[in-house]
Every structure is written in C-alpha cells, then in structure tokens.
C-alpha cells in the first residue's frame, strides 16, 4: 500500500492508496510513513476513501496517527470512511472519539479557522 | 474435569480478569474526566494498547463480540470511554461558556461602576426619567441642583427636577441654596433606546448669569455717562454756534472778527455732528442692552 501526501493550504492530506486493505501485513509500514510526514506544522486530514477493510492493526494505525497529531497541538480529521470501516469503528465506538467527515472538503471546512467577528 | 470444562473455566477466568481491567481503566478515566484533553490522551493510549493486544484478528460482523475476552473488554471499555469523553466535552464547554459569561458580567459591572464614578464626579446633573415620568437614575449633582434630597430623588416625579420646563424642551428654574437663589438651566431630551423615557440635564448657570448681568449693567452705565456727556456738550455748543452766527450779522464788525466767527461756527457744527453721532451710538448701545434682556437699565 502506498501513502500519498498533499498540502492543501494550511492542511496536510494523507491518503493511503494502492490497496483497499489496511491490516497487520501493511499496517506497520503505513504507520511509519504517515508518522514521518506529520511534523506538527499543520492540521491533518486522513482520506480513507480507498480502504474497504481494516483490522485491529489498521485501527491501531489510525489511533497512532490521531495521537501523533494531537501531541503537536494540532487536529486530525478522518474523511471518506466507507460503510464497512464505519461499522467497525461503531462497534468499538471510535466514531465517537475521532472526528469524521464525509469527504475531504467537509474535513477542510471543519479545520478552517473561525472567522474574526467584524467590529461594530 | 474435562478439557471442555477446563477451557470453559479459562474463558470465564479470562473474562473476569478483563472485566476487572476494564473497571480499573474506567475508574482511572473518571478520575481524569475534569480535563478533556488529558482524558482523551488516556483513552487513546488504552485503545492503542487494546487494539495491539487483539493481534490481526478481524473486527467486522463475521465474528461475534462475545467470543473473545480482549474483544469484549475493548467493546466495554470503548462504550465507557466514549460516553465519558462526550460528557467531559459538554462539561468543559459549559464551563467555558460560564467563564465567558462571568467575564462578560464582570466587565459590564466594571463599566457600570466606571460610568457611575464619572456621573458622580460631574458638576452638571444628569437624570433618566421613565415613560411614566418617574426618575429612575440620577447623579448626586442632579438632586443638589434641583433642590431634592438625595435619598428621595429616585422614584420622584420628573416635575421635582424640572419644574415647568416642558418635555423635549429647555428652560430655567430657580432654586434656593446656600442662602441664595440659584438659576439652573434644564434640558429634557428623549431617550432613544426607551420609548417615552427622557434624559434630563441640569446645570447651574447662576454665576454666568451674574457675570452677564454685570456686563450689561456696566454697558448701561457707560451709555448713561455718554448720554449725559452729549447733553453737557450740546448745550454750550448750541449757545456757541448761536453767538457766532449773531456776530457775523452785526453791522460794522471788523472783517477779521466776522471770519473768526465763521470759523467758530463751522468748528462748532463739526463738534455737534460728532456729538450727534455719539448720541446715536449711545441709543443703539442701549437698544442692544435691551435686546440682551436687561430692559430696565437700557431705558
């Protein structure tokens, strides 16, 4: 599995691709490459649109990414989780812990800074 | 004991162990629930550990959650953790709102005290009257200038402050104070933010009034003096001109005397013109004093 990394404005978009499974076989490698890309310089969106199947190791990677981003005081949003993955996350309540978005644009909107109110 | 019994007991034992672990974790999370960020850190750490402990087993609907203790433990822990995180987030949000509200109230209170201090320091009186004509707010100066006891000004009828000055208008009232009479200028203006309500402004103009009257009196005195002077000059001047004219008409008078009489008459006429001009100025000056409101002295 590959990991593509793209900078969209002030947000880093990380995209596992080239396969639809994040499991014990590739989780370690994906985790290493994703964590290497996170340097605390910006918020992160993880686009999971390519993943159809994730096991406990794959979920562990997601938790590790979320932790790493938080350690820098930044925010992470997981976008485009497919129904199968969403179901698994629901079983172990990760959908109530993570910030999820339907797509990358929605994730970027969540991370956008609050507009400053105009003076009267 | 059969092998199945032994496996069953192991499973039960494992389950109980896991249950205790989850319970301990749960208590630990509750202990940290006051700080949402700290709580979330602990939840994520526990997730990471438990997911690693599951190995690479699938988590989808193909496997029942009741079969393995670690999976059961994860599900139990996750339910508690998620619920606690949401409660803590809501509590933190409520605390933040309360803090913001308290800060806003404190700022408003400071602003109010600052305004009160400013109003208290003013020499001019300011009062707010409600739509029913009752005084709702007044500074100390308002009570003093209106001659109303300070403790009785709030709730008093507006007439106590403004006398006969009409709503929306300006006027003056007289009040006894410090053994004398003070003139107080009153202005009433609508308060836009409250229909029917008014702002009343009072200022003591007694000293200004005295100064103004003093100036008018001095002006009038000067005019009187000039007027008297005009009369005093005109009378002998008229006599002088008359005599000069007579002198010119006498027969047998030396030509030089006639010339001198002409010069005297001409000069007297110039002086008379100047005096007439001065008298006109005096008359105008008196009219100005009259217009300024001091009718008695201007006559």
Radius of gyration of chain B: 50 Å
> What portion of residues of chain B belong to β-strands?
5-15%
**Taking all residues together, what is the mean pLDDT of chain B?**
86
**Number of strand segments of chain A:** 7
Low-pLDDT residue intervals, each spanning 5 or more residues of chain B: 294-299
Q: Roughly how much helix do the residues of chain B carry, as a percent range?
A: 55-70%
Structure write-up:
The complex is a heterodimer of chains A (120) and B (299). Chain A is an alpha/beta fold and 120 residues long. Chain A has 4 helices and 7 strands; from the N terminus they run E-E-E-H-E-E-H-E-H-E-H. Chain A has helices at 24-37, 56-71, 83-91, 104-111; strands spanning 2-8, 11-17, 21-22, 43-47, 53-54, 76-79, 100-101. Chain A has a 5-stranded mixed β-sheet with strand order 1-2-4-6-7. Chain A has a two-stranded parallel sheet with strand order 3-5. In chain A, strand 6, helix 3 and strand 7 form a beta-alpha-beta unit. In chain A, helix 1 (24-37) packs parallel to helix 2 (56-71). Chain B is an alpha+beta fold and 299 residues long. Chain B contains 8 helices and 5 strands. Chain B has helices at 3-31, 36-53, 69-121, 140-146, 159-162, 206-249, 255-291, 295-298; strands at 125-129, 135-138, 170-177, 180-190, 198-204. In chain B, strands 2-1-5-4-3 form a 5-stranded antiparallel β-sheet. Residues 294-299 of chain B have low confidence and may be disordered. The A-B interface holds A 23-25, 53-57, 59-60, 63-64, 66-67, 70, 84, 87-88, 91-94, 96-97 and B 40-41, 43-45, 47-48, 51-52, 54-61, 65, 74-75, 78-79, 81-83, 85-86.
